[in-house]
Amino acid sequence: MAVHTLFPPSSLKSSFHQTRPPLSRPSPHRVTVIHCIHRPDSVHFVNGVGYTRADWQSSCAILASKVLSHQQPTDHTSGDVSSGTDHVASVNGHKTAIDLSLVPIKKEATESTNNGKLQKPLTITDLSPAPMHGSQLRVAYQGVPGAYSEAAAGKAYPNCEAIPCDQFEVAFQAVELWIADRAVLPVENSLGGSIHRNYDLLLRHRLHIVGEVQLPVHHCLLALPGVRKEYITRVISHPQALAQCELTLTKMGLQAAREAVDDTAGAAEYIAANNLRDTAAIASARAAELYGLQILADGIQDDSSNVTRFVMLAREPIIPRTDRPFKTSIVFAHDKGTSVLFKVLSAFAFRNISLTKIESRPHRNRPIRLVDDANVGTAKHFEYMFYVDFEASMAEVRAQNALAEVQEFTSFLRVLGSYPMDMTPWCPSRGD
């Protein structure tokens, strides 16, 4: 059974800001400028059971045959492609005006090249799918080298080429633009709770969850060499890391202001780059090694059972199987609010399907629902989207029947992915 998307993705336009080392991908041509644009009419593939890699490669071949050899005009002031883009590609019967000119081709290059030969046209190799598991993958993560997300990427895909991104949004778009093959992003922590930003981005983008990895987190208090704890007046780190170490910092008698930054390793990098001798960072031991900092205190998380769950994202879904434990993630909503939640959960309970996660997020398109009662007045109810993880594979009949029943009670239902569970042995966080 295939559950189709009923909810159109919201429009998103943003530009790549390469404040970190530039993202790159192997290419026979030089990449000058990449405008990172998410289009509501962009190509996507149905998230259903039975779609094979061959079907997906055929769609890529259709796209490749539609690429025009001339470079499309670009409005550099807005970072968007000009409305003059009129070439249309058709994939599985759906038309799209997507611009695939990621590698600009000069006009004179189309007429002649070395030895008078015409330039080689794009082939399916230029738009090749991600390498098979075991090959070197390009994996995007949020942060800088030394971040916990980099460690999670290495655990999920050993020997991968880890690509740092300055924002979660950039990591999503790096995969969509073929700059990276996978993205590894955190979704929840055992102490700090859910990373809501990534839940929202899962709904806005057309990537699929293809796996999960759980990483024990071991925090350290870092400072420049020679700095003593009593000289520290400020501690900087990611908001989650600050929350996870608050009790320990208080017990240490550290009378220092807490300041949130984008990521843990970025805090260590900032201290080293600006020679801040009154500031400490909460980050990993690897970050201390990379940026030349000393460890003032080791293992400062409030609880040794500090684990962050990451999900792996790809452009295409994997085919669900039944030979190992699988987990499936969905998101749904209903026009009449939360009154349908009990019926949805019953669809899983009656089939003995265990739920491992349920998360509610405000409905972006309709955050408030008004209910008028002539006797009482007008009531205002918040509207929500519900994210649910359950332990079953979409290859199982019971999971297919459960979603068929859920679809009857909801106005919107989308399968984010059906993927193998992380079954690695768990141990409390510890130092390297």
TrEMBL record:
Signal peptide: none annotated. Gene3D superfamilies: 3.30.70.260, Periplasmic binding protein-like II (3.40.190.10). Keywords: Amino-acid biosynthesis, Aromatic amino acid biosynthesis, Chloroplast, Lyase, Phenylalanine biosynthesis, Plastid, Transit peptide. This is Arogenate dehydratase. SUPFAM superfamilies: ACT-like, Periplasmic binding protein-like II. PANTHER family: PREPHENATE DEHYDRATASE P PROTEIN (PTHR21022), PREPHENATE DEHYDRATASE-RELATED (PTHR21022:SF19). It is found in: Plastid, Chloroplast stroma. It comes from Erythroxylum novogranatense. It holds the Pfam family PDT. One of its GO terms (molecular function) is arogenate dehydratase activity. Its EC number is 4.2.1.91. One of its GO terms (cellular component) is chloroplast stroma. Residues 329-420 form the ACT domain. Pathway: Amino-acid biosynthesis; L-phenylalanine biosynthesis; L-phenylalanine from L-arogenate: step 1/1. It catalyses: L-arogenate + H(+) = L-phenylalanine + CO2 + H2O. GO terms for biological process: L-phenylalanine biosynthetic process. Residues 138-315 form the Prephenate dehydratase domain. Converts the prephenate produced from the shikimate-chorismate pathway into phenylalanine.
